[in-house]
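Q: Sequence in, structure out?
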Amino acid sequence: MASAAPPLPVNAPDPAHPPLSPYQSEADPWIWCLAIPLVFAALTSIRLTIPSTPFFDEVHYLPAAREFLKIGDETGAQYLNREHPLLGKQIMALSMHWLGDNPLGWRLPSLVFGTLALGASMRAIWHACAERFATISFGVLLATGFPLFVHARIAMLDIFMVAFLAIAAWQFAAAIAEPERGRWRLALTGVALGLAMGAKWNAIVMAMVPGLTFFAARLSAGRRRLVMSRRGLPVPGISLGEAFVWLGVVPLAIYALTFAPGYGLRTPLLPSPLASAGLIAFHATILDLQSQVLMPHTYQSAWPQWVTNTRGIWYLYEFTDNAQRGVLLIGNPLTMLAGLPALVWCLISGLYRLDWARVGVAVGYGVALGFWVIAPKPVQFFYHYTVPSCFLFAALALALSDVAGTQRYRWIAYAVPIGSAALFAIFFPILTAAPLEGPMSFTWWTWIAGWR
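A: Exactly. Output:
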């Protein structure tokens, strides 16, 4: 008679009932990933066409976009705003072609891409950590954090860059979480990175992160066949050589393709500046324009002021459309500061627990901000903090998710997103160019001197 099988040791996994994966243990909050962006889009649409004339940097980008509408005309099309790539202005031009050269045609693409950035960011953090509370709270924090909302309402290039970077983060995180779909996810990552760089050069440093992450993971595994081995993290089944194609070659190829319409920007007597110089040589012109010494600006600031949320920008403050109106770019007073200790918590706890989602948001913040610390751009503005702020809010959401798992401090995890939404409601009038009582109305929201 066969002897009975020995009992399993305490806490040992039961072969008949293997432990649940993170994706099985918590329900995918995909409905929230749709609902929060839809509410965001609805709020963004309020007074989207006010002011009815271009404001702030729209005065630079809209004339450049209009030139794309002239390609093929007898009068020719000028190559304006050469210091920036073309993709964002092409998107604006396409919208103006469909909807007309009017405020809706100028700004609707920003609303669409801002909404897309929010949804993609939520999917990215879900695939990175598989924590339902962190995903939902991140959506609320990012939507009510001010920078994403303000840039979803103005015809500037930043929102297109942020949206494509968010899509790249989503696809890269999904490739790691679902390696069986890793190949096409990495391919989409590469396409999105190329489009992000084609929208604005500021994306270049972040575009390097997925490839370097893949390389570091494989290098740390100590594989003898480093380039060709398909084993190991971050995406089993994909070799380092193949990853170089998806995360290195594809982004550069897509980026180059975004310049194709630029060859049509020419006058009847002069060829396109892009065609004359060639794509590679033309980048010297872009670099020279990017690094030129500009005149000091009233609203210029430096990175310590971004981190402490002590210097904002009035995108608009004037009497327009029959009322005094304003649009102020600052960070949410609560979450911009609460996110700083959350970054430290994510880095320390992530390293201790080997939780790469938490380490990743802290490192991502450091890379995104560090670029501006060393960038040879003498005049900088708070809107350059938009990408770092996305990582800041992600770190805060992950820290709150840890707090939500406690009994004593669980209330804090809910109080912070609620407080963020409440402050968003308070500042809503000067985020959306609402009619104000008079020229001195700004004092109600300028709680510190640096916001004036």
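The chain is about 55% helix and 5% strand.
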